[in-house]
Amino acid sequence: SDAERKQALDIKKANSFKQKDEALITSIYTADPSAHVFNNKIYIYPSHDIETDNAINDDGDHFAMNDYHVLSIENDTNEVIDHGVALSLENVKWASKQLWAPDAAHKNGTYYFYFPARDLEGIFRIGVATSLSPAGPFIAEDSYIEGSFSIDPAIFEDDDGSYYLYFGGLWGGQLQNWHQGQFSSEDQYPADDQASLPAKMAKLSDDMLSLAEPVKDIVILDEDGNAITTEDNERRFFEASWVHKYNGKYYFSYSTGDTHNIAYGIGDNPYGPFFYQGVILNPVLGWTNHHSIVSHQGKWFLFYHDSTLSKGQTHLRCVKKTELLHDENGKIITITAYE
Ligand code: FUB
Fold it and tell me: What ipTM is given for this predicted complex?
């Protein structure tokens, strides 16, 4: 598989990489860091990677995670605190396996934790769990969010107090298995010269537990205003949606998957369309690339992961933090994780 080939190469290369940023935590493997500032402190909501005997394949069976930990960073010392298990698979009634990339939001004193998992039929859905503390533990709702599917939830809170859920992922994330609102085991992609399979989004309801509107497609346009196509896999959406707002503009960023970039587009509202701008983070050690962007104490930060901690094993990753800069035109300066 593509994943196996890349892992073999990465294991060979691992020792020659000079890292720009250290792993934030080395006692457990962590990935897919979604960072937010709550109570003037950065909290990170990552996946918790574990060893597994599952084969490495393009469906991601080797990502067999079964719980979540929340991390936070002390403002004065930069010490990273692991708050322990925040949610376990055994406490999620509707889920059978694979707790993949999560995110969190805060509203009116309650913290909402959004996470994907396969349901009892093996279909990826997105669930929500709540806590009065940003560090959890979180109590999961009895069922997944009605109308949710696929993976990689990301929550964006706009200045007017609206919250939006962005989600979706190809291959193991099953986005290609949803046709006219129905799941099918048959993969279907738009033709090579057609608009590529889009990320999804919807506004959240006031209680944060359901979708307030039908799910919408996210359109990414090139410099001529044409949709990015299926064959353009250096630029097309694959997984790992994130939205941040800078100088009144909406930045939609995502992983290009099999070409391993974190790329982005800019739009005028949370729904897009988003005009493609370029690469935020070049490929990292490991197959996946997944990030978040957050502002804290006057600076912007990119949180990302790579597989340096496991010397190149794709499913054993570590989260990292680095400064992110917007230039005078609002464009993001591309980051490379190695010197
Ligand atoms: O961590 C499991 C999956 O790998 C995530 O959901 C994807 O975004 C990729 O990082």
Answer: 0.97
